[in-house]
Amino acid sequence: MKKSSAFFTNAKRLRFLNLLYLLYFLYLPLAAAATPPDSPAVIVIRNATILTVSHGTIEHGSILIRDGKIAEVGPSISAPKDAQVIDAAGQFVMPGIIDCHSHIAAESINEGSVSVSSMVNMAEILNPDDIDIYRDLAGGVTAANILHGSANSIGGQTLVIKLRWGQPAAKLPFEGALPGIKFALGENPKRSNFSIPGQPRRYPATRMGVEETIRGAFSEARDYKKTWDEYNKRFAAGEKNLIPPRRDLRLEPLVEVLEGKRYVHSHCYREDEILMLLRVAKEFGFKVRTFQHVLEGYKVADELAAAGVGASTFSDWWAYKVEAYDAIPYNAALMTRRGVVVSINSDDAEEATHLNQEAAKSMKFGGLSHDEALKMVTLNPAMQLGIDKRVGTIDVGKDADLAIYNRDPLSAYAVVQKTLIDGRVFFDRQRDIAERSEREKEKKALIDKFRKAAEKKPEEKPKPPQSSGIDSAAVLPGGAL
How large is the C-alpha radius of gyration of the chain? Predict the structure, then answer.
């Protein structure tokens, strides 16, 4: 078949087109929003309905923000002369949404080669240019727990970040937040759906094996800790010529778990495996901070509450695999009623853009109150991540991480107007809309530039030099003639 042009006939031109395609999608996130302007030292949000989460609703209220912190909240606040004023008349202000289970801003999330991969760390592969950061900001999300994947019984080290779009990776981590580690139970770590024909199966291959893998790892960690404790004791006593134990980067995070310095966030579905991990944790003297997904949590809600374990779950995802067949949309409300601290998470970048609506579903499925539903995406995940002294409610002294909506955030018609982190506007809907045409022009100019480069004929290669007529056999060593 004859082509209409010779545009695609040259391999170099195809490479140019691939480059053009890549640049198009690389440019899209970079152009999605300009770097937010520097925040003024003082900001006042006025005339808003303020959903404090901690102490009720303030009608026609104001929030004074000073140096990134909430300095004052009330029905009437005088704005200092140097303050930037945000008029939020007819709008609603709530604490920024916190996603307790996210995989955004990461280059890769699974080290599936071994079942215990506690030595790998999500902090090392943060991607500050991930467009999902900006999109989640547009959904009112201000902080997220970035988790390793669920291919391992004990996965990688996790990290809490603030969605500071436009900042380098070093500026994303939530300062002072205790680090975590990802565990996983059930089908994923035993790899029910990941067997490769002709390849030996990785241990463990059963739920029993998952339990024993976790128990075995903590047995090693306990012995490792004992060895170091003995060495440190002897060193403190002034003993000379001591040789320190060999460091084990796989076991050190597990020792931190035993010492209460690292949180455990465990992927799970079924009630039996939930109880199994609680037993293992009790055996080794550590606590599970949260069960993630925990779709059968309603069956063992009393046990979860007694253990002081948080539950970070979906609003209404179920039946997408065998483990999820017994999931129900009433799960979050039933666990809440039994005294469990429950949050609604995303596990998905798109889902995170409307976590406010996901929380609202618990009012329909289970009859939770407006404030109880709001807590599921604000205060409760903050408590689960140990950052509730800084975020999760609108109170004096806390970080000014806020989301401003045009309607009640639990309405299906609510749209985020502004999202602030540390008192700085990282998403502004009006600014975003106003800049779209200019960004389209920039994008088109870039595409045109590379299209023209791709259409150019490749330069002719220089012809090889003509023979000098000298007999090569006459050339002596060293290049002399």
Answer: 28
